[in-house]
């Protein structure tokens, strides 16, 4: 004020009074705000510390607009919030004067990509960060089109000029590891059910009976016993005076009434292994998730936030005892009923943790590590297992793939066949199965076809060393082989004559080739080699390629040079007329 006001005179302020502010209110409100996410709740944005401030204001405004449109889910919004400061950290180290959006150039976007690569990020991870920055800068350019450099506008038309690399699919756990996890989880689940059903256990020391009973009474009445309650200190002091020190005294006390944080792990592991639900979907289950029970099955309704536009899904599972997915969920609902009365929540998971009743599951990494260590679970190299809960879905899919023998019609549950094959069948854990399948197919292709009878076996009257093949009579002979079923051809209808050309005998399981058929085979081989000069390579390969390979690589080597040489002198000079067609 100019001076102390007199009676009857209005107050006057000097010009510019109060105008000096180190942090403008408008700037702070534009850089610190809340975003309403699609699935309920809010995500906080605090970019007050970002520099340069004008660019931070433009980026924060663009993020606010994106969050009101395509970027709506909580995980996506949080990912954007965490990514954008990385771009400002890169700009701070560039050493160029950047004050606002008009100072940005295409080289800054490319340089940010190089900066991320120099930090050792994989191409898939790098790309997920880069696309978020590009999306925000596109929104900035749309809002301030007259201030954006043309070269930056041109650069923002694409995310990266480098080839996109698909991320490697997360591997599944082996059946050996999955069996350990399932057995340990089932053992713990049964023990937890019995523990809660039994309730508080009597103290063997009668001097502890009174404080213990009083403590359990408070838990039964209030749902929780905290260190502000006199019963807690009476219970603790009574044990301490007798030298009974229990680090997890709270979990031990409340575990007789509720599930604990440690109990959640085996239930979560077993549920994910049995249903194949994504671990985030298992965590987000609600108490009304079981629907339409019929015929020993029930539908599990769950929320998959990543499925844009189809978030609400159902999965039909077995329903019965606690060994079934439906029965397991019913057990969790029953075990959390008491805690739910004192801590109301729609979440399936309500339990005791660190002196409070909580609902929902965040990231129980330490609990998972302690659980696998307590059960001495090891990986395929006998090392302590580092369990990632996200691998349980892949493990369920891999086990189901083995059970269905890779039949995509049965395996692709909840996905198209293409997605199921790319994300769940093409994983390293199933590679030995695929390699063995290919080996078996090649073995069948090479080793299949006719049965070869060597002269020693034919002379001894034992055409097949295993006694499974009898040499057909001469009247069943065809040109290149002795036929074990001319009217039971695998290439035609039962009871009808074999409809194939005579060289198809080289691929037929009914055919039996002995030394007396070698002259005909050699004569046919000479004809096949001569046809190479008459036919095109493609036509020759289509007509005679398999027959030539079978003769050269399987039949002739089986008899040896002496037998083949003797048969070569008897090779016929004529061939059946059908070979000329």
Describe the structure.
This protein has 23 helices and ten strands. The protein is mainly alpha-helical and about 575 residues long. The protein has five domains: about 130 residues, no CATH class; about 55 residues, no CATH class; about 120 residues, no CATH class; about 45 residues, no CATH class; about 130 residues, no CATH class. The strands form four sheets. A three-stranded antiparallel beta sheet has the order 3-4-5, with helices on one face. A three-stranded mixed beta sheet has the order 8-10-9, with no helix packed on it. The chain has a two-stranded antiparallel ribbon with strand order 1-2. A hairpin with a 2-residue loop joins strand 3 and strand 4. The longest helix is centred in the first third of the chain and has 24 residues.
Q: Number of helical runs?
A: 23
Q: What shape does the CA trace take?
A: flat
Question: What is the rounded Rg?
Answer: 38 Å
What is the end-to-end distance? 116 Å
- Compute the average pLDDT: 80
Low-confidence stretches: 18-25, 462-469, 471-476
Alpha-beta classification: mainly alpha
Largest sheet: 3 strands, antiparallel
What spatial order of strands do you see in the largest sheet?
A: 3-4-5
Strand proportion, as a percent range, falls in 5-15%
Number of strand segments: 10
Total separate domains:
5
Helix % is 40-55%
